[in-house]
Amino acid sequence: MEKQNKTGLNRRQLLLGVAAGSLTLGLGGSIGRAFGQDQQLVFWSQFAGSKRVAGEALEAAFKEAHPERNLVSTLYAEPPQLNEKILTSINGNTAPDLFVQHWDYNLTYAAADRMLDLGEALSVSIDDLDPSLLAYGHINGAQYSVPMYGTSRGIGFNRAHVVEAGLDPENPPKTWAEFRDWAIALTKRQESGFLERAGFSLFHNDLEAWEVFTLFLQGAGGKLLNDDLSAPSFAGPEGVKALTFLKGLLIDDRVSDLGFGLGPGGLASPFNTARAAMIIAGNYSTNNALRAGIEFAVAPIPMENGGFTSLVDPFCYAIPRDAKNIEGAVAFVEFALSPEQQVAFAVESKNVPVLKSAQQDPAVQADPYLSKFVETASYAPQEAPAIPAFSRMVTIIARAVQEAMFGRASVEDALSAAAAEVQTILDRG
Amino acid sequence: MPSRSATAGPFNRSWGAYAFLAPALLILFLSLLLPAIATIGMSFTDISFLRPANWVGLDNYFRLMADGRFQQAIGNTMYYTLGVTFPTMALGLLAAVALNRKFPFRIVFRTIFYLPVLTSLIAAAVVWVYLYEPYSGPVNGLFVSLGLGPQPWLSSPNLAMMALIIMAVWRDFGTAMIIYLAGLQDIPEEIYEAARLDGASKFSILWRITVPMLGSVTFYLMIILIVQSFQVFGAIYVMTGGGPLGSTETIVFQMYQTAFGYTEFGYSAAMSTVLFFVILLFSLVGTKIMRRGEG
Amino acid sequence: MSVVATQSNLTRTDERSFPLSRFIPWGERIVGYGLLLFAAFATMAPFLWMVSTSFKADAEVFQFPPSFIPQGLGWQNYLDVIYLPDSGRQLVNSLVFALGSTISNLIFCSLAGYALARMQFRGKTIVFALVVGLLMVPAQSQIVPVFLIVQKIPFAGGNDWLGNGGTGLLNTYWGMILPTAATPFGIFLMRQFFTRIPIEYEESARLDGAKSFTIFWRILLPLARPAMAVLGVLSFQSAWNEFIWPLILTNSRDMATLQIGLQLLQSGPDARWNVVMAMATLITVPIIIVFLFAQRFVIDGAVTSGVKG
To answer: Which InterPro entries match (chain A) (predicted)?
Structure first.
């Protein structure tokens, strides 16, 4: 008898538990409901790290100028994390009204027709914006995303090392031959072969391997893709020349060792620890180099026979096509592209503003490093490899570069195999 | 009374068991089973979560069979799993046996051996990169003093995975230790006393009594370690990003890249399905080996 | 039997009569301690290095070769972390999430583990196979499906009974905890430990007429204290370090956890690593406390539980 009674009670307890559970679920739900009401402007920002202060200032200025817009922002640390958020939210219909993201992700969303054509929506004159940065938001004949700022690339060098090697820091290399002389002169090895200081540290991860190759490819007069972005063109004679030159620096001239300074998050950076005299630098190199006490200097990247080249890498605004508050989102982008905000953001975050007039603003030019990166940005090509499969192309090219460096394949074979692979992906669409 | 409970017993007990299981199974259903079924379904489509999906049949699987990079990743992952699982179990057992006795400061030592799991991954990665530093890192210092040449560790396609394995064992053996410690608590002291009276050596006590008595714990650890190693992601993402030359690219690393980097969720789901069966196979083989060892 | 006993008695008396042998345990102990200290240092070095970096000034971070002991004991990095705008809120969220996940794992996994270890019911093998099988589902492929499931929980967040129309459990603690509320790891662990407890304990109670829940609650659970302590530590630690679910399942600053804060701090190529390490060190403190608290039960649980016979 007693036994059965207890079992009954047990079941009753279970039912009670289920009831309590569903009650709490309901409660949680009502909290969730309170979140999604009234007309807000939901902005997912990627202004983290060293851009955090600049981003917060921008948002505060917008709130002050447009209190009625009810801006609500959330900050995400890295482009891949924001990407996880956007992909899930687009499917759950919880996407924000506006976000700012690394350009290649925006192309993926735009290619699937999920984004608003900003060329039509914005009243800002596109001609006032830097075309080389703008090119990264252009796909399928429309401007689906608009840059806030970009980083650009130059040769970062350690002035103390250059002086010590008897070179003139005011007269940096203007051709590949001069660059090679600098790299050799700056390299320091002990008799045992121990690398004390790399003359030029080529790359420390896949992205940088792609980057250094692309910069020298452009230096030889080549491009990653053909004009209509339908086929790779990096495996041609220019690509072979570029990769052969880089391989020569590493293998014949021994200006660095393969895998030198490889490591997470730039903490192992041989440049900041004064173990490399030259690197490919971007705006983001400035802060930590100065913190480390390096005599950091920037020079433009020479082409083979004179002239300079560079790369820009923008972060862009985009508005989902189904956004609930398109009007507010457009207002924010227009506000952020205004001359005052462009200058303020650039000076605080040390990034190249997209607005041409802001690039030449005295406040921007007064910063010795920012002005240098604005200058190198002007050497970047006016067109961009703006394809959704960009990040995959980076991986493939980085692999080819390293295969050639490790001697697993000849320069020609590595590049043409990579080109074939990129072609398959482009054809698949 | 007795006859009554005999007839009602099995029914009641069954219901009781289901009541015990229900909450956990409901959660597993929502958080794992449903997503797993969805993943298998997705593997037959070209779903991108951005465009309308199409049914593609077995295309993704055919593509996987021809995908050299995926095969390299399977090889890498198996190497990593074998390299991590057994040393971690062995070290964890040794540490547990050593720290199960009563002696001063044992709590301090236990905590220290558990610290690696607690150390933030990024901090751990930074330190290990320095330890492996080819020129002035302590690991090569040790190698040179032993008369072996310095090794390029993380920058060599042949050694990078080994370097990651060593780091993973360092990180995981503390977990194995506390699980073994818990297991050691319910081995009756009398068994040890009897063995000691029989004059058994320490090693033979460990091998003849402790290890067999921990069989079910070891089985648990082996499965968990196989599963975790096969799904390794964070450490590799931080330490090498899959390089050099793809030598540390693992299945989950590629899966993530394919899904979120390239928005090929269908293809990634096929990878995930294959991974599931590879882990299952390894776990079954591991179970077989353990059974044979026990017999 | 008696022969063996006398033999061992003999060896014991031999030892006692032979003075040198008294030193052998001492020597062994010294070697043992030496080995332990070495292992402890090797194990601890990365942790110490994290702490040491957290005290370094900006320039010292980039010194090469790195210094193990910081030049000064600057607390500035720690102050920078503590005064971050959202850190208090993030701490609360992390605690709610980690404790919620730990408690639900302790309850649900022990119940399910007990059923799988000790109860007879139809479909037992299938359920156990399913639990172990679900271990093998990689988390990275679940991200999108779990998001959609959490969003479509019926009657929550403005949803109708089919789960449409609202945001479900997104942006709630319930939603964050759900994917980690019961894990195959935990169920499997508890099952393995329950099978190890001698059946006699249970049988005598059953003869006394106790029913399943009483047996579980009064007898087996106290005996399984070491395993529960392990499960508690592992669940707390994995929830405390969890990053993906809090990121994916919430959309607002108010719901961010400390791990999200840490990610924000180390974002980009020019992060301030000394400040990152200070936050990483602070984040570790609660898990160490939980570990110290739980490890007592790992060791002393079964012995002192006093439910013998």
So the answer is: SBP, TAT_signal
